[in-house]
Design brief:
Helix content: 10-25%
Order of helices and strands: HEHEHEEEHEEEE
Oligomer: single chain
Structural class: alpha/beta
Bound molecules: inosinic acid, magnesium ion
CATH architecture: 3-Layer(aba) Sandwich
Strand content: 25-35%
Number of strands: 9
Distance between the termini: 24 Å
Strand order of the largest sheet: 4-3-2-5-6-7
Largest sheet: 6 strands, mixed
Radius of gyration: 16 Å
Shape: globular
Length: 186
């Protein structure tokens, strides 16, 4: 990414690096306390959740494993249809496991709702969700989210795993996508 592209895309910084990391430390402590004495299986949703998951995992004091799923929603790139296709399934069997799904952001909730239904059918011992960000105003379907990092307004955000056309995931903070580039779907 060139400096010019970077500057063109990045709007107002919504959550800076210190605030992100401080909140992740809190979430890690809360999750570690809740799962004391158990083994956790973290299920990350590729690709956006990778960055949050890596930092969160290093704050956990309970034994944990990670695995990943890749899913794609049919329909426009920036608007979730709720019809989801599994592109990469888990390697680890979740039956009898304590599973924590790690998501970057919950928007309509449709993707997560599908995922939770799909994973529940595999009979884990427990199934919870941690999401770094949530946009409550955009919710179309209720999804039970046990842990939330930050509630944000209805704006398209980039950075810390979140992309616009696959770019900007490497920003260490969460910023609003610059108005010139905002997709019309959001
Ligand atoms: P949902 O099914 O509408 O909840 O969509 C969730 C997925 O849409 C997330 O996992 C992201 O990949 C993507 N998404 C939703 N909002 C944003 C955003 O503001 N920036 C970047 N990606 C987003
Ligand atoms: Mg995405």
């Amino acid at each position: 990414m060139t400096q010019a592209e970077l500057e063109r895309g990045v709007g107002e910084i919504l959550i800076d690096e210190d605030a992100l990391q401080a909140r992740i430390v809190e979430l890690g402590a809360e999750i570690s306390a809740d799962y004391e004495g158990r083994d956790l299986l973290l299920v990350g949703v590729l690709k956006g959740a990778v960055f949050f998951m890596a930092d969160l995992m290093r704050e956990l004091t309970v034994p944990c494993e990670i695995d990943f799923m890749a899913i794609s929603s049919y329909g426009a790139a920036t608007d979730s249809s709720g019809v989801v296709r599994i592109l990469k399934d888990l390697d680890i069997n979740v039956a009898g496991r304590d599973v924590l799904v790690v998501e970057d952001i919950i928007d309509s909730g449709l993707t997560l709702s599908y995922l939770v239904r799909n994973l529940s059918a595999r009979k884990p011992d427990s199934l919870e969700v941690v999401a770094l960000l949530t946009k409550p105003d955009r919710r179309e379907i209720e999804v039970p989210v046990r842990y939330v990092g930050f509630e944000i307004p209805n704006r398209f955000v980039i950075g810390y795993g979140l992309d616009f056309a696959e770019r900007y995931r490497n920003l260490p903070y969460v910023a609003v996508l610059h108005a010139d580039l905002v997709p019309n779907a959001t």
